[in-house]
Design brief:
The chain is α/β, with parallel strands linked by helices. Helix content is 45%, strand content 12%. An eight-stranded parallel beta sheet has the order 1-8-7-6-5-4-3-2. InterPro entries: Aldolase_TIM, DapA-like.
């Protein structure tokens, strides 16, 4: 399966039971809700997936289960966030063996690599696999910026095909498109810039609140791409208070609370994360409650 780098791709959450085991039953409920809404791929193993807390066997189980659930209808993409080049190459190999069809790659974790080291890291992994790759550029959260010059050095790797743009500088979408055209597909990775990014030419949206509100997220994207801007903006204005829950250190807890409200998830997180408490919990629940109570009636969007 070739990946068509466009559309909404959820950074899917990992579901846990109350006794801290993988909740594969609720995980399947959520995956099927995403597919029914019309997402174009699923991304496992990101921050929202609490990948840093998962064992090697749990990661393999999630890949295999997701591949089983989707039945080849949409690609499964694995996020790689490793401390070593060797570890990243091994993770890419395991992803392919388990049935994944693509990779999303962060720069090396913990060690703040310089530009030369970062490019060498990406190139080594790309040359080790046939899987198509989306580079994840998020210097705010991970401390390393993948500049346009660095991206240009990587274009000799044919399987580096897309970039997830999370610098919060929306003009970077224009810079990438102006310099590389369609050689690199561009995804926004910031929920609160989702619609704006699509209007500026982003090919897709790696989304967070889609985990709780899949139909609304896909509808915004498809309406915008179809030129129905006013309809997209109206839904997006309703959505923005919820989308802001993604730009928060407790984004996992926030989004899982929203999944509970829409009945496609549970609140369970893995320690050291803990469920929200006190005033912050009440604040987030109020936003979610208001969002659910005013949830818009969507136009038919799937055929757009």
């Amino acid at each position: 399966m070739q990946i068509n780098w466009e559309g909404v791709m959820p950074a899917i959450t990992t579901k846990f039971t109350s006794d801290d085991q993988l909740d594969l039953e609720m995980f399947e409920v959520n995956v099927k809700a995403q597919m029914d809404a019309g997402v174009s791929a699923l991304i496992l193993g990101g921050t929202l997936g609490e990948a840093s807390t998962l064992s090697f066997e749990e990661k393999k189980t999630l890949i295999i289960e997701t591949v089983r659930i989707v039945e080849g209808k949409i690609p499964v993409i694995i996020n790689i966030a490793e401390q070593t080049t060797k570890g990243a190459i091994e993770a890419a190999q395991v992803a392919k063996e388990c049935g994944a069809k693509g990779l999303m790659m962060l720069p090396p974790m913990r060690y703040k690599a310089n530009s030369y080291e970062t490019v060498t890291y990406f190139r080594a992994v790309a040359n080790s696999t046939e899987l198509p790759i989306m580079i994840y550029n998020n210097p705010i959260d991970y401390g390393i910026e993948v500049t346009l010059d660095m991206l240009e050095e990587l274009l000799d790797c044919d399987n580096i095909q897309a970039v997830k743009e999370s610098t919060r500088d929306i003009s970077n979408i224009t810079r990438i498109k102006s310099r590389f055209g369609d050689r690199l597909k561009v995804f926004t990775g910031v929920d609160t810039l989702g619609l704006e990014s699509v209007f500026m030419g982003a090919d897709g949206w790696v989304a967070g609140l889609v985990c709780a509100f899949p139909a609304e997220t896909v509808a915004i994207y498809k309406l915008a791409k179809a030129g129905r801007a006013e309809e997209a903006i109206a839904i997006y204005r309703w959505f923005l208070p919820l989308l802001e829950l993604d730009i928060n250190p407790q984004l996992v807890q926030n989004i899982k609370l929203a999944e509970v409200a829409t009945k496609i998830g549970t609140e369970n997180v893995r320690a050291p994360r803990l469920p929200l408490q006190g005033n912050e919990r009440e604040r987030v629940l109020k936003i979610i409650k208001e969002g659910v109570a005013t949830r818009p009636v969507l136009p038919e969007y799937k055929s757009l």
